[in-house]
């Protein structure tokens, strides 16, 4: 077999020397530009002159964000925003931090630290996302020259149903069969677990191992386990890595179902580019996270992951810093062998492996096309569990393998990896921005020393520019205030975890994120309790603000501005309270909206139909009224489905669960439960749902689109208020029922259910 690292088949990427020269020139241009910005920002001007400049920049950015800007015009927009931020930072550090009293001064410095963090993230964001990279044309490579691929699917405690779908899809990937091997890496059936002193653990591990072994045999995959559960996911991957020999390794989380094209869209890049160690693709998700589900915003709002995978990774890719995200990625074995396999010194083995290979001089590449479909954490508890692990792992990298000090990285890579780690310190800034207005309104602490003219010239324009700048870069994939909400939900729980890592960098352990959770009732997440108290405290602070307005004769402008600040925080807190009200989740498999044509046949008739949504277990179809009399509950039916022009038909089989009209009784629908009786029928179903990446692209496009800053705030305020009131009504109703049932004993513990 030809060595893929030595092959010259296909169209090579841009010459390394030219690409490096471009990056080097741009990097130094950035340094010169930033020096110029701060030099210009340090020139003394009176408040009136700066007022004109700052509001001109605000108006310019307000209009600029509605247009596509490329090349030099894009940098003009970015540098205009950065100039105002630099000017504000210089003014803020030299004019507003005078000593008043020890408590106020301490609070003022803490707030200033949060602002410095926010502005530095703004500068890093401009650098990284200034030139998001467009992917070069995929090289044309003959099948005979393609590298061999081992597919690793690690699993720990996920259900057999979730695993089987991914296994079937992996074994049906469009790639030369003799060059493809699929491995299920079972860490839930290790010898350590099978020999556990706890008979329940041992029995479950034995049953699981036998079930998955038979499943692999049935679908055509290889089952692997190991002796001990050491070093979590990295250890699991390395155990398989040592016993396999494919040129490339495709890593898939066991809930990440690959499309049939995933290797055709990624493997050719390795041919002809011996320095390439990684091709990463987006993590695309088909279900709702707790924010989307509990606020009912899934169909209206871009997914939370879109900002990172649609914009940030492309920006990192330009700077040779796109990194391994743990799944949906193809890696070169020879490069991994140089660093001893997948790294395991931290609990984010993916980013750690990437930084070490970049430091070795190898390259990564990002393909922005969704080629897998995965599952998000569906409860607030599982969401927070996942984010704590991410935060701990990235802070571990910051401490143990600091990108600013690690030998081998290029200057721009140091900044990119520093940003990846530094971002996770947001809990400090987020909580300071939440608490700062309360310190003034409730206790009168003097935390921001500025008069009304200075606030109008410096503070207010900077706040607006921060929103406009973010909207300019990410507005199509992340609405204003949505990042604030997601960060707020995490901050209370990730901050203690981060502090723990700083004190004991090697202490964190890998916690698997629960997926596919179900609940048969509404409940309030215990993690929501702090948000109740913070929302109540903020409401009290606003009441104090009105009292101060009525009774104070000075600093009225400060009171008003702080009240607006607190009101915006209250919107976020009410949304957090609403999110903590977890909705019942009876459906184990998410529905995917589609519009496909097809035919239904039950042995008595054939009728045209339309498929409106589909999941791993069934589909909802529209049937003509003329066929209703020929269809009966329990019918075994066959459906031929056309997913698009020029695409092959798929045939699936199922059992009709019932017929039901729409609300206006104009259309008749049927529910179909899939009933495949062979592995080939199951594979046809998996191919229909997950095989074509065009479906994921269409779903992305439907959810994309910019929304105005105020419109986003009002949207969030409306949803948050509605859900918070529902949460409160649920709690009050539950207490009343308990009171009546128990003769006056109010046991509110049942308010906080656990998800099954």
Any descriptors?
756 residues, 23 helices, seven-stranded mixed beta sheet, Spore Coat Polysaccharide Biosynthesis Protein SpsA, Chain A, six-stranded antiparallel β-barrel, Thrombin, subunit H, single chain, alpha+beta
Specify the CATH homologous superfamily of the largest domain.
Spore Coat Polysaccharide Biosynthesis Protein SpsA, Chain A
What is the helix tally? 23
Q: Say what the CATH topology of the largest domain is.
A: Spore Coat Polysaccharide Biosynthesis Protein SpsA, Chain A
Helix content: 40-55%
Structural domain count: 3
Distance between the termini: 50 Å
Largest sheet: 7 strands, mixed
CATH class of the largest domain: Alpha Beta
Q: What sort of overall outline do the alpha carbons produce when their principal axes are compared? A: globular
CATH architecture of the largest domain: Alpha-Beta Complex
Question: Which secondary-structure class do the elements indicate?
Answer: alpha+beta
Share of residues in strands = 5-15%
Strand order of the largest sheet: 3-2-1-4-7-6-8
Q: Any idea what the radius of gyration is?
A: 28 Å
Outline the structure in words.
The chain has 756 residues and is of the alpha+beta class. The protein has 3 domains: 45-129 and 426-582, no CATH class; 145-424, Alpha-Beta Complex (Spore Coat Polysaccharide Biosynthesis Protein SpsA, Chain A); 592-675, Thrombin, subunit H, CATH 2.40.10.220. It has helices at 16-41, 47-64, 71-95, 102-129, 160-171, 191-194, 199-219, 232-241, 290-295, 306-318, 333-338, 349-359, 380-400, 411-422, 426-443, 452-474, 482-503, 529-551, 556-579, 625-628, 679-690, 693-703, 709-741; strands at 149-155, 180-186, 222-224, 248-251, 257-258, 276-280, 329-332, 363-366, 372-373, 523-524, 581-582, 592-601, 606-614, 618-623, 636-642, 650-661, 668-674. Strands 3-2-1-4-7-6-8 form a 7-stranded mixed beta sheet, sandwiched between helices. A hairpin with a 7-residue loop joins strand 15 and strand 16.
């Amino acid at each position: 077999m030809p060595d893929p690292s030595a092959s010259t088949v296909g169209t090579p990427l841009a010459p390394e020397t030219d690409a490096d020269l471009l990056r080097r020139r741009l990097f130094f241009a950035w340094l010169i530009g930033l020096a110029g910005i701060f030099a210009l920002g340090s020139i003394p001007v009176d408040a009136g002159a700066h007022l004109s400049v700052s509001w001109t920049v605000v108006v310019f950015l307000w209009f600029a964000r509605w247009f596509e800007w490329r090349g030099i015009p894009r940098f003009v927009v970015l540098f205009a925003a950065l100039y105002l931020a630099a000017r504000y930072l210089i003014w803020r550090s030299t004019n507003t931090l005078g000593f008043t009293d020890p408590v106020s001064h301490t609070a003022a410095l803490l707030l200033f630290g949060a602002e410095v963090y926010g502005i530095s993230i703004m500068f890093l964001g401009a650098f990284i996302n200034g030139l998001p990279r467009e992917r070069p044309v995929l090289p044309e490579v003959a099948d005979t020259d393609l590298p061999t691929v081992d597919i690793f699917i690690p699993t720990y405690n996920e259900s057999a149903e979730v695993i089987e779908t991914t296994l079937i899809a992996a074994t049906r990937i469009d790639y030369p069969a003799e060059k493809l091997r699929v491995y299920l890496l079972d860490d839930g059936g290790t010898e350590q677990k099978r020999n556990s002193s706890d008979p329940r653990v041992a029995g479950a591990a034995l049953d699981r191992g036998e079930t998955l072994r038979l499943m692999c045999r049935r679908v055509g995959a290889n089952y692997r386990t190991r002796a001990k559960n050491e070093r979590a996911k990295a250890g699991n991957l390395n155990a398989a890595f040592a016993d396999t020999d494919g040129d490339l390794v495709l890593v898939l989380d066991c809930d990440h179902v690959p499309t049939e094209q995933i290797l055709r869209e990624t493997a050719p890049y390795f041919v002809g580019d011996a320095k390439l160690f990684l091709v990463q693709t987006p993590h695309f998700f088909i279900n709702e996270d707790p924010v989307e589900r509990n606020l009912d915003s899934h169909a209206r709002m871009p997914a939370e992951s879109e900002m990172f995978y649609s914009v940030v990774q492309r920006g990192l890719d330009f700077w040779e810093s796109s990194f391994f995200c743990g799944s949906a990625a193809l890696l070169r074995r020879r490069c991994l062998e140089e660093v001893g396999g997948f790294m395991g010194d931290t609990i984010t083995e993916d980013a750690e492996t990437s930084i070490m290979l970049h430091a070795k001089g190898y390259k990564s590449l990002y393909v922005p096309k969704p080629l897998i479909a995965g599952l998000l954490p569906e409860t607030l508890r599982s969401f927070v569990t996942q984010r704590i692990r991410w935060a701990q792992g990235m802070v571990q990298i910051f401490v143990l393998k600091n990108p600013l000090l690690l030998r081998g990285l290029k200057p721009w890579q140091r900044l990119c990896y520093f940003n990846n780690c530094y971002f996770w310190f947001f809990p400090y800034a987020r909580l300071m921005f939440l608490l700062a207005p309360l310190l003034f309104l409730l206790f009168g602490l003097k935390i921001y020393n500025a008069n009304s003219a200075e606030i109008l010239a410096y503070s207010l324009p900077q706040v607006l520019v921060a929103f406009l700048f973010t909207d300019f870069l990410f507005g199509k994939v992340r609405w204003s205030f949505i990042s604030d909400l997601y960060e707020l939900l995490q901050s209370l729980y990730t901050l203690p975890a981060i502090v723990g890592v700083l004190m004991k960098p090697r202490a964190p352990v890998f916690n698997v994120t629960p997926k596919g959770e179900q609940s048969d009732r509404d409940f309030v997440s215990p993690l929501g309790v702090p948000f109740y108290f913070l929302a109540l405290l903020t409401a009290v602070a606003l009441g104090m603000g009105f009292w101060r307005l009525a009774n104070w004769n000075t600093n009225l402008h400060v009171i008003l501005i702080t009240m607006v600040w607190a009101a915006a925080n209250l919107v976020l807190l009410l949304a957090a309270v609403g999110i903590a009200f977890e909705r019942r989740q009876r459906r184990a498999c998410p529905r995917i909206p589609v519009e496909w044509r097809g035919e239904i046949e039950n042995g008595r008739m054939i009728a045209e139909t339309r498929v409106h949504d589909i999941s791993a277990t069934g589909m909802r179809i529209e049937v003509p009224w003329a066929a209703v009399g020929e269809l009966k509950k329990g019918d075994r039916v066959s459906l031929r489905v056309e997913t698009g022009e020029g695409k092959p038909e798929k045939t699936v089989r199922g059992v009709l669960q019932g017929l039901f009209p729409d609300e206006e009784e104009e259309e008749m629908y049927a529910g179909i439960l899939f009933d495949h009786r062979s592995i080939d029928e199951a594979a046809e179903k998996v191919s229909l749902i997950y095989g074509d990446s065009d479906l994921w692209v269409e779903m992305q496009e439907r959810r994309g689109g910019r929304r105005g800053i105020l419109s986003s705030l009002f949207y969030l305020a409306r949803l948050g208020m509605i859900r918070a009131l529902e949460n409160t009504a649920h709690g009050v109703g539950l207490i009343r029922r308990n009171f009546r049932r128990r003769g006056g004993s109010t046991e509110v513990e049942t308010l906080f259910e656990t998800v099954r």
